[in-house]
Amino acid sequence: MPELTPNEWDIFLVDHPEAHILQTRAWGDLKSSFGWKPRYLVSQAAASGEKIGAQILFRILPFRLSIAYVAKGPVGCGAFTHHPEFWGELDRLCRQEGAIFLIIEPDLWDAELKLEQSALKSAGFEAGFQTIQPCRTLVVDLQGSEERVLARMKQKTRYNVRLAQKKGVNVRASADIAAFYRLIQLTAERDFFGVHSLEYYQRANALFSSDDRCVLLLAEFEGEPIAALMAFRHGARAWYFFGASGNEHRERMPAYLLQWEAMRWARAHGCQTYDLWGVPDADEAELEAEFTQRHDGLWGVYRFKRGFGGELRRSYPTLNRVYKPALYRLYQWLAPRLFGRQS
């Protein structure tokens, strides 16, 4: 130890069913097909004996450099400053891989990690300047009966779920990634956002559907695919990551029925929450005041997602650890110009 093989990481996660799906080996395998290199690290705290670990993804750059990324981790970590042994091992691994800096997006809500900024700074952390995963989301409570879950939704959303059923929309599980990809390309053209390649969705489905941790749902009208989504689950949580809709039959509200069927799928596998994965990073008052006027970025989906009765939550802010300060400053200057500013 402390570095683990992929099989050993799987065994470690058995004792941590609360781990985020982005910390699973399957997610690392997915990213490894698209320019990332996963490594697995576990360390035991000397004081408490508690084991914490992380899947670290390294984005390989020229000149034997990289950017390190811990997505929704570490696993088993509460207060960051309580685990100096782990961070020492992680720093060693990052330097070994030529990391310019490490991005950490904790799997903690903003209200959960109440550490003084001075404590974080003295432990070697600094506030991150960019995010990879959405900061703010809506989390739907799946507990209780189906009637209870529906009752927590807004009346218009419940109406649209039932309207889709009445209008002849049929939702079924499918392995037709090509049909999904055709729909997501239409959605991207219509709503001006980027998508992954066909191979990315094929690989994600292959890795997660083998043990039923992923479902591709197609909404059809008279046998024609008109909307689709991919949902994922791990432990007691489920996530809506990818969705698409065509340009025809949108008045039949297929997207509403798709989300409801995804929630039913998650409930059937024992999930207690369903994460709608991404709304604008604004407080509830601002969201409610502006969502009818704004359609840029994630504002375009907030009107739709808010109807499912989810609780608005914000992730703990991104943290960075810097290993090559001069290159880090250069990256800070280049990143907004290369990748655009976050909305």
Question: Any overview of this molecule?
Answer:
By secondary structure, the protein is of the alpha+beta class. It has helices at residues 6-14, 25-32, 84-96, 117-122, 146-151, 155-166, 177-191, 198-209, 254-268, 284-290, 299-306, 325-339, and strands at residues 3-4, 36-44, 51-61, 65-71, 99-105, 126-127, 136-141, 169-173, 214-221, 224-234, 237-245, 273-275, 311-314, 319-322. The strands form two sheets. A seven-stranded mixed β-sheet has the order 1-2-3-4-5-14-6, sandwiched between helices. Strands 8-9-10-11-12-7-13 form a seven-stranded mixed β-sheet. Strand 11 (237-245), helix 9 (254-268) and strand 12 form a beta-alpha-beta unit. The longest helix is centred in the middle third of the chain and has 15 residues, at 177-191. It is globular, with a radius of gyration of 21 Å. The model has no long low-confidence stretch (mean pLDDT 92).
CATH topology of the largest domain, by name, is Aminopeptidase
**Biggest sheet statistics:** 7 strands, mixed
Strand order of the largest sheet: 1-2-3-4-5-14-6
Q: Beta-strand level of the residues, as a percent range?
A: 25-35%
Dominant shape: globular
| Weakly predicted, low-confidence segments | none
Q: In DSSP terms, counting alpha (H) and pi (I) runs of 4 or more, how many helices?
A: 12
Question: Topology as H/E string?
Answer: EHHEEEHEHEEHHEHHEEEHEHHEEH
Decide which structural class fits the backbone.
alpha+beta
Query: What is the CATH architecture descriptor of the largest domain?
Result: 3-Layer(aba) Sandwich
CATH class of the largest domain: Alpha Beta
Radius of gyration from the alpha-carbon trace, in angstroms:
21 Å
Tally of separate domains: 2
